[in-house]
Amino acid sequence: MKKEVVIGLEIHIQLMTKAKMFCHCSTDYIGKEPNTNTCPVCLGLPGSLPVLNKKVLEFAIRTAVALNCEINQVSKFHRKNYFYPDLPKAYQISQYDVPLGIKGYMEISLPESKEKHRIGITRVHTEEDAGKLVHKGDIASSSYSLVDYNRCGIPLAEIVTEPDFRSPEEARIFLVKLRSIVQHLGVCDGNMEEGSMRCDANVSLRDAKSSTLGTKVEIKNMNSFKAVKKALQFEVDRQKKLLAEGIEIIQETRHWDESKSVTISMRSKEEAHDYRYFPEPDLLPLKVDLKMADEIRRNLPELPEARRERFIKNYQIPEYDAEILTSSKALGDFYEKSTSLYSNSKVLSNWIMGELIRYLNENKIEIEDSPISPEKLVGMLKLIDEGIVSGKMAKGIFEKMFKTGKDASKIVKESGITQITDKNELFEVMDRVIKENPRSVEDFNEGKEKALHYLVGQVMRYTKGRAKPDFVFDTIKQRIKKI
Q1: Pair 128, 264 in one domain
Q2: Residue 420: is its pLDDT beyond 70?
Q3: Rounded CA gap, 281 and 273, in Å?
Q4: What are phi and psi of 222, to 5 degrees?
């Protein structure tokens, strides 16, 4: 019988508060000396007491309402007990049976369908982050690990979905949209590579006509959207192969090895009872003022869906362009800044989605760190409009801009790369090409259009791409007719 893929996601986002969840330590820990960004509270030393950072609550509610969740007026913190070297207290303060937000959803659009697919959000809750293990060499073969506690106590919001995904691609699309949402909310930068947004997935297979879920396997250590899709697809294929061979799926946690593109068994999967949850005795139940939640809901910033619709309406660009340009807040901001400087919004989207994103991806640079600013991009486009450079020449100039950070006008001035505007100079080149290629001229006169393209190409070759193709195309036909 055909097997149906069932995937659920558990996503942790680091909330961008200035202080940690239960103490005054700074959340700016990246790049700091190990174990210097700590205090008795986040290290769990005897006698220390946690105090909830109000900003954590505000950011978590903002996230929950943006995901259409109901807000529990009273929620509770629990101790999630487990021993691991990067957890100094041997428990994590989290939320268990009464989380902050419940019963939410998010809609995603699938490439092959115009219809939206609703993904259920089981819960949104807050918890503190653990420290970080630094392994010697590869994690699978490391002989020892070091512990850095700087990350302990960083506030997290955990978003747990229903098992509503039916393919790895759906999971990837969801994560891209979720990242854009939390960026627009201003609660998380969504950087998976640096770990501020982390995703675990539960994967299982079931008979297509059955509602009973199969044995699920948890996948960890997926630190990019591409890795999520690859890891889930590998796991789906692995489980299908095992079932085809009559081998039972074991409930376990597996690690995604990016270098080998495989999942590796880590441990048997824990259940909730393994953590021995019990109410955190040092924190009272969390009571949410519903007026506060309503105010947060009313004052939500523009979210990606609304921004996408505005881009389509205001800038007259296709839905596909708008979808890409709102896939991250910074990319949308770059585009909007560009449109404030240049009127042709479609030309802008073409260059941003084409050349700019390609160079950013190839060099693994985020849009925020792009060496080409909106001002520099627009400056180059204006050179095209003024006829100083052609579109083809602009692509070479763009590459130099990206590598050097220089303005297009400066690159043009230094290299002397401009379009030939002297018509007499172009006439001489065209006449030379016509004289050197009598067979092509004859073919064109016999109605073979390809011959004309060949002649135009020869003119572009002699001028090293500095002639205007449209001008050459129209003019060379006239000069042939005069022969």
Answers
A1: yes
A2: no
A3: 19
A4: -105, 110
Same domain flag for 220 and 159: yes
In 3D space, the residue among 7, 64, 9, 6 whose CA is nearest the CA of residue 197 turns out to be: 9
Judged against a pLDDT cut of 80, whether residue 442 lies above it is answered with: no
Q: Which helix (H) or strand (E) holds 263?
A: strand 262-268
Q: How many residues does the chain have?
A: 483
d(CA 161, CA 230): 20
- Quick one: tokens of 447? 């109605």
Of the residues 295, 311, 330, the one at which a domain ends: 295
Spatial distance between the Cα atoms of 55 and 38, rounded to a whole number of angstroms: 19
Residue for token digits 């849009």?
Answer: 367
d(CA 248, CA 361): 40
Domain closes at, from 295, 311, 341: 295
Nearest Cα to Cα of residue 460 among 419, 422, 399:
419
* Mean pLDDT for the stretch of residues 115-122: 93
Judge if pTM exceeds 0.90. no
Phi-psi region of 190 (alpha: psi -120 to 50; beta: other; left: phi over 0): left
| Tokens, residue 145 | 């690990």
Q: Are strands 155-161 and 145-148 parallel, antiparallel or unpaired?
A: unpaired
Type of residue found at 16:
M
From first CA to last CA, the distance across the chain in angstroms is 74
